[in-house]
Design brief:
Layout (H helix, E strand, L loop, with lengths): L3 E5 L2 E4 L4 E4 L28 H10 L2 H15 L3 E9 L2 E6 L6 H9 L2 H15 L1 E8 L6 E6 L5 E3 L10 E4 L12 E5 L10 E7 L17 H20 L5 E4 L2 H7 L8 H23 L27 E4 L10 H15 L3 H4 L11 H15 L1 H7 L1 H11 L4 E4 L2 E3 L9 E3 L9 H5 L1
Parallel strand pairs: 10-11
Antiparallel strand pairs: 1-2, 2-3, 4-5, 4-14, 6-7, 6-11, 8-9, 9-10, 12-13, 15-16
């Protein structure tokens, strides 16, 4: 009878046939879903309303994706928040850093909002979903925003938009597999025409989408199939290792050995004789197993004797221990893994040099190659993400509370050691990939 062994949720290994079997679910997304009908007041995110959780699980098992995302998190954050004043000089905006100790109201606001954790969490939300969810809480006096609070985007579902003048509701649930109303928090959407309309409101900052109103589809989701392939390669290898029979030795013991150990004349009955030989066989095999196992027994020598048949001249049955080579060959799957890793890295638009991903026989880049690509990535690929994650702070709180202070992320700019012994500097020239010394010359 065939036996199935579960490898992971929904994936089984058929031990009789050596086959991996997986129950898959169609990932058909609802699109813009203009229809406001139905009994649920929110818009499902994915065909089963669990798309964010599936994306997190899929990415979390894929080292190429997680390396790329971790790099994007860090490049996005730079050296952290930089409060500053913006001064216009000769048609340019000059950022003048400020000491927040001179602005106790702002400093208290950031402290109460746990700003470091809030911002870092928002960055992860953006890089995973291109959307962040920030709750804005009104002050007791009702004339300012007192603090901000992040809601992980995977927990948030957008309410249906029923008209141009209506303010939708948003729904927050830590576990959407259970959508019992008792588990769901309902929060008003932020009204930009009346920012202090509600005591609590949820501001969704997101990168504009071509065809989606409620939920974005980041470009790296195009690598979903590639991630599935590379993840399945590892599933197959694990299943092969877990379910293969790992035989190291074949020990051959002649039956005559036990007949000699237990001569028939010692026992009154046949049953006693057979029981004695069976017990002797079990004890001997146990001792042999202990002798052959473990690193402490490596290199031991086994001696045996055998007799020669006087008629035929051939050896009579004796003890034998044959070494069995157990080669597990997974090379056939490596090209598929390499191709999927390349496709995943391309979808993230992050050069493998920056993430430490080794693709095939490609050599890792030099220090100067890494420096140029890092600086280029920061200059080209972080402006829109940074603007989006700082939108609640710069465009809403600063405006409503009447602050003159703006916030940005402080850039890390890599330099050559002859320019800077530390190897980097913070903020500064617009195009740090050029050599200062060559320009001066």
């Amino acid at each position: 009878m065939s036996e199935l062994k579960e490898i992971t949720h929904g994936v089984h290994f058929g031990m009789a046939s050596g086959t991996i079997m997986e129950t898959t679910r169609m990932a058909v997304e609802p699109g813009a879903m203009e229809d406001t009908g139905g009994t649920k007041p929110w818009i499902d995110w994915g065909s089963d309303n669990l798309l964010p959780q599936r994306i997190i699980d899929l990415a979390g098992k894929n080292e190429t994706t997680m390396n790329a995302l971790n790099f994007k998190f860090k490049a996005h954050y730079g050296h952290g928040l930089m409060p500053h004043k913006r001064i216009f000089e000769n048609g340019k905006i000059i950022k003048e850093p400020v000491d927040l100790r001179a602005y106790p109201e702002i400093e208290d606001f950031l402290w109460q909002s746990d700003i470091e954790n809030l911002i870092q969490g928002s960055i992860k939300d953006f890089e995973f979903f291109h959307t962040t969810a920030t709750e804005l809480i009104k002050s007791k006096g009702g004339n300012k925003i007192a603090m901000m609070q992040r809601h992980p985007m995977a927990w948030v579902r957008a309410g249906k938009i029923k008209g141009k003048k209506s303010t939708p509701l948003h729904y927050v649930n830590q576990n959407w597999e259970n959508d019992d109303p008792k588990n769901i928090s309902v929060i008003n959407a932020f009204d930009r025409f009346d920012p202090l309309k509600f005591d609590r409101s949820l501001y969704l900052a997101k990168e504009p989408s071509l065809d989606r109103i409620y939920y974005n589809t980041p470009g790296w989701y195009a690598s979903e199939n590639a991630m599935e392939v590379s993840n399945k390669v590892w599933q197959f290898i694990i299943a092969n290792l877990d379910n293969s029979v790992n035989i190291k030795f074949h020990v051959k013991i002649p039956q005559e050995y036990f007949l000699a150990m237990c001569p028939r004349e010692r026992y009154k009955t046949e049953d006693e004789w057979y029981a004695a030989m069976k017990s002797a066989e079990a004890e001997l095999k146990k001792n042999m197993d202990e002798m052959l196992a473990g690193s402490e027994n490596a290199g031991k020598t086994f001696f045996s004797k055998f007799a020669v048949d006087p008629v035929t001249g051939k050896p009579m049955p004796g003890w034998e221990i044959d070494d069995i080579k157990n080669e597990t060959n997974h090379e056939a799957f490596l090209p598929a893994y390499q191709a999927s890793a390349m496709a995943t890295s391309t979808a993230h638009n992050v050069d493998p040099t920056l993430t430490g991903i080794q693709l095939g026989n490609a050599k890792s880049g030099s220090g100067s190659d890494f420096r140029e690509k890092f600086n280029g990535y920061v200059q080209l690929h972080t402006w829109v993400p940074r603007q989006t994650t700082l939108e609640p702070l710069n465009n809403v709180v600063r405006r409503v509370n009447g602050w003159e202070i703006y916030f940005d992320y402080q850039n890390i700019i890599l330099e050559t050691l002859d320019q800077n012994k530390s190897g980097f500097r913070e903020e500064g020239e617009k195009t740090p990939t050029t050599s200062n010394k060559s320009e001066a010359a």
